[in-house]
Specification:
The structure holds two protein chains of two kinds. By secondary structure, chain A is mostly helical. Chain A has eight helices and no strands. The termini of chain A are far apart.
Chain lengths: ~220, ~220
């Protein structure tokens, strides 16, 4: 039932594809943090238009399926003159989607910083920028880390969606092999295990970072 | 932008929407049921069962929905278990979302102080009465907001079933796109439809939550 030959033959292809998945994951996480930070700054600024822009962004991203967002981005990019960039479209769609959740996580983290700290910073004459980089953001990031870890695990689990626009990441590589060999167990079981391993090592890394940060702050 | 295309293909999209709603409701009911079973099993106190539930939960938390979908759609037939597309989709959503549901239900139940249950027992309430009068009314108020979020996730993930050609909204959109070559308009319109429905659902659930937690204001 389990064709070991097929399994061993598909390992190199799957390993190459796993690298693509990893790259996609890193790109998505970076974009998510970028969009999230930008959007939370808009939301907490005193600008009304910025506030509503950010709220609309979060609402739309949370209210529509990622698959549909991916298609909108994939078919929208050519209208902006960017053609045939499947990887870019996938990274952008997943990053934009996750950015909405990151916004909410960061907002909770920032609002968690006691007002007293801001007043203290102001009274010893810290500039606004310094208050943000030295007082607000380090604390907000530490508090948000567990939630962010959660969110980025979801990002990892969203990367297979890139296969629908033909990015050859781990899942799509599996589909291709499966279609050629007419046999699925040998490909999809290792793929499932692969995702679990990547997810577990990512959460372990995040736990370690959490501990380090906690020691650093106390 | 050709908006007339949307009107022309509206009946087709509407058909897809119908199936999306049916599958979503089915998925929500089944995963809530399986989630409750998982909670009951993990509270059963039998070691092997508790460990089994934990392993299942960990696996589901680690693999993408799409991979689970492929496991059920491609791998299960090889070991002789074959479903047609819609049951496959329903099974995927149920298996994937029930651990999340279980986690929420468990959290809501654990949040009720044990003292209340003990007090109820002291005044002679039966187990059923305790569940009906003490546990459910409070747990419901705690569980509704996170459950709403998870249900929205489930509805959104039902769009993935288009990949195994379940004729739901995303699939119908793909078909319309293939015929019209107007992908951007159609996908943007469908995104708007999902957004409108899910936002309405979120707002209504907030109303329900308010109603369920009325007792907090009275007390």
């Amino acid at each position: 039932m389990f064709n070991t030959e097929l399994f061993f033959n598909s390992v190199p292809t799957l390993a190459t594809a796993a690298v693509v998945t990893f790259k996609l994951f890193v790109c998505c996480v970076c974009l998510s943090l970028m969009f999230g930070t930008l959007s939370v700054m808009l939301q907490l600024s005193n600008n009304r238009a910025g506030y509503w822009l950010s709220r609309t962004y979060v609402s739309v991203m949370r209210g529509t399926p990622l698959l549909v967002q991916l298609f909108v981005v994939f078919f929208g990019l050519p209208l902006l003159g960017i053609k045939g960039q499947a990887f870019l479209a996938a990274a952008l769609a997943i990053g934009l989607n996750s950015g909405a959740y990151t916004t909410e996580i960061l907002r909770a983290g920032i609002q968690n910083v006691p007002v007293g700290h801001l007043e203290a910073a102001a009274s010893i004459g810290m500039s606004r920028l310094r208050t943000w980089t030295r007082v607000v953001l380090p604390q907000a990031f530490t508090v948000s880390l567990p939630a962010l870890t959660n969110e980025f695990t979801i990002v990892l689990k969203s990367t297979p969606l890139a296969s629908v626009v033909a990015v050859t990441e781990l899942t799509y590589a599996g589909v291709i092999i499966q279609a050629r060999a007419f046999s699925a167990i040998e490909v999809f079981l290792p793929i499932a295990v692969g995702y679990i391993v990547i997810a577990l090592s990512f959460t372990q890394l995040a736990r370690w970072l959490e501990r380090r940060l906690r020691d650093f702050h106390t | 932008m050709e908006l007339s295309i949307i009107f022309k293909y509206a009946p087709m999209l509407l058909q897809g929407l119908q199936l999306t709603i049916i599958i979503s409701i089915g998925g929500i009911i089944c995963s809530l049921a399986l989630g409750s079973v998982l909670v009951a099993l993990s509270r059963s106190g039998i070691r092997a069962v508790v460990i089994l539930v934990r392993v299942y939960t960990e696996i589901i938390l680690g693999i993408p929905v799409l991979v689970l979908l492929y496991l059920i759609y491609f791998v299960l037939p090889e070991v002789g278990i074959r479903f047609s597309e819609i049951p496959t989709g329903l099974l995927t959503l149920t298996l994937y979302y029930s651990p999340y549901m279980a986690e929420i239900i468990r959290g809501a139940i654990n949040a009720i102080p044990t003292g209340q249950v003990e007090a109820a027992r002291t005044v002679g309430m039966s187990n059923f009465q305790i569940a009906k009068r003490i546990m459910v009314p409070q747990a419901l108020g705690l569980a509704i907001p996170p459950l709403t979020g998870i249900c929205i996730g489930l509805v959104k993930d039902s769009a993935l079933l288009s990949i195994i050609s379940v004729h739901e909204l995303a699939y119908q959109t793909k078909q319309a796109v293939a015929r019209t070559f107007a992908p951007f308009e159609l996908w943007a319109f469908v995104a708007f439809c999902y957004w409108a429905i899910l936002s309405f659902w979120e707002v209504s659930m907030r109303k329900v939550e308010k109603r369920v937690t009325r007792y907090r204001e009275i007390g």
